[in-house]
Amino acid sequence: SKHRIAVLPGDGIGPEVMQEAEQVLSLLGEVDPTFQCDVTAFHWNSDYYLEHNRMMPEDGLERLKAFDAILFGAIGDSRVPDHVTVWELIMPIRKKFDQYINYRPVKQLKGIRTPFKDMNQMIDFSIIRENAEGEYSNSGGRLYEGTDRELAIQNTVMTREGIKKVSQFTFEYARSKGLKKVTSATKSNAVIHSMNFWDEVVNEVSSDYPDIEMERIYIDALAAFFVQKPQAFEVVVASNLFGDILSDLGSAVVGGLGVSPSANINPSRDYPSMFEPVHGSAPDIKGKGIANPVAQIWSAALMVEHLGRSDLHTSILQAIEDSIAAGVTTPDLGGKSSTKEVGSAIRNHLKIR
Ligand code: NAI
Ligand code: MG
Known about the structure:
This is D-malate dehydrogenase (decarboxylating). It catalyses: (R)-malate + NAD(+) = pyruvate + CO2 + NADH. With 353 residues, the chain is α/β, with parallel strands linked by helices. The protein is built from eleven helices and twelve strands.
């Protein structure tokens, strides 16, 4: 049966890179007739907002619920405040569909130079970020506003259930990939309540996985190690804030935003998961035809993997690497090719394989 995919191209370069990813999906169906997608596009973006004064229709989430997965581009436009686009479109999807895992591969593609010299081993690990609670809470507030005594309180909310779920997901992921080690990002030496709780629960979960080593590293040192010895990691589990920062750092270490995909996963599969590049709508290069489509295409590949076809995920990644090896890259990777040229080079390599 066909996989029902909701596509939300969004703003700026979103539709430009999405077009390439959609074409990859339809090509997959030609290369392998057992894999078919039925794609429905929803143009819920800043234009939609300016016309309707909302980012999506009232029954938007209800309509998305029926799909097997959501492929998202990027949103953001100077005519609409960023907190509106983010909090009225992306956040409701993540929350309503209980996408409490944010998965980001930090994988150096062949042919992509990193900021480091003399690297004889490729960087290849993953970050699993808690995506639903933690430091990003609306608990807190400000007191004595405008006075010399003014103060702000921002509470972190971590639940046993929340930490347990993200840890279990991480250890299960490690086991399924044959990994030997999980690294947990912490700061329990200074953030004594929430991070000690994090350590405790991660530790409890780890005892169910005696075959996998668990290491705890303070977030500050971990950030340095991401730069100094990124090959030392297999999978890193982190709270919402720490995971947010680490994943942008990870992305920078393996080639930048143009090549960084992500997945917002609902592991129970009660609701669709959402796949999107890490980058935003890049208004500075909008309409120039030079946006790198790799992050969007790779995000589509993660979606294909989530739908049960890790073989096709691998084929797409290899086709991306082949096109980089052939020198077809956009300016962010030092090349001269356009978005469309990169997209079609990737599709050609997918056909040949
Ligand atoms: P951005 O990721 O859009 O751009 C940062 C820099 O990276 C720019 O110089 C851009 O040209 C470059 N870049 C990004 N993607 C690229 C690609 N595929 N190929 C080549 N170069 C690429 O982040 P920025 O500028 O902070 O935000 C712009 C807008 O995007 C804002 O409105 C922001 O709110 C929104 N945004 C949306 C996100 C989402 O939809 N999930 C995530 C991040 C930002
Ligand atoms: Mg971020």
